[in-house]
């Protein structure tokens, strides 16, 4: 297993390769950004960015969406996967936001996770991106990269990965680390064909050494 120092070093190296790593979702106000993150489950950020301008123009605030019809919301988002469930989540989440939070996106993980469609990863992303509150959201790229590099045990679940990374990496690197590991997973350490032979982390990567 990589030590705290090695894990932090690896994330610094990722930052050298991807100094501008940040969210690929279009940044908006916290409410609309939270909806974008809900919509991004199991689809690409690019696909989400294509549908959100018209959706957010039609539904400008939580009250608009709380009173929307399922069929109309679906018509705006039907190009992305799971659109029926997602339309339901958007409406329900907006209703809950109006009923319990006066239409204002809350700033704690617990409150965020009490909203329909908002899991831990979505809550972490909203905390980090909208409010600058340190969080280490774990998606499929973060999970794969952390396991391949031996930052975490190979059988770790998402919550365990998040806890270990938060323990090993200084807090001021959590948000950047999340972005860097996503970029690393997208462009360097891809699921099928990672670029191990040219990887600057090969020396400390057990998976890479077994591949080259
Ligand atoms: Fe990924 Fe290969 Fe680099 Fe390891 S050596 S981090 S598996 S690309």
UniProtKB/TrEMBL annotation:
NCBIfam families: nth (TIGR01083). This is Endonuclease III. The keyword Cell inner membrane does not apply. DNA repair enzyme that has both DNA N-glycosylase activity and AP-lyase activity. The DNA N-glycosylase activity releases various damaged pyrimidines from DNA by cleaving the N-glycosidic bond, leaving an AP (apurinic/apyrimidinic) site. The AP-lyase activity cleaves the phosphodiester bond 3' to the AP site by a beta-elimination, leaving a 3'-terminal unsaturated sugar and a product with a terminal 5'-phosphate. The keyword tRNA processing does not apply. Pfam families: EndIII_4Fe-2S (PF10576), HHH (PF00633), HhH-GPD (PF00730). PANTHER family: A/G-SPECIFIC ADENINE GLYCOSYLASE/ENDONUCLEASE III (PTHR10359), ENDONUCLEASE III (PTHR10359:SF18). Residues 39-187 form the HhH-GPD domain. It catalyses: 2'-deoxyribonucleotide-(2'-deoxyribose 5'-phosphate)-2'-deoxyribonucleotide-DNA = a 3'-end 2'-deoxyribonucleotide-(2,3-dehydro-2,3-deoxyribose 5'-phosphate)-DNA + a 5'-end 5'-phospho-2'-deoxyribonucleoside-DNA + H(+). Binds 1 [4Fe-4S] cluster. Keywords: 4Fe-4S, DNA damage, DNA repair, DNA-binding, Endonuclease, Glycosidase, Hydrolase, Iron, Iron-sulfur, Lyase, Metal-binding, Nuclease. Its cofactor is [4Fe-4S] cluster. Belongs to the Nth/MutY family. SMART domains: ENDO3c, FES. Its EC number is 4.2.99.18. One of its GO terms (molecular function) is endonuclease activity. [4Fe-4S] cluster binds at residues 189, 196, 199, 205.
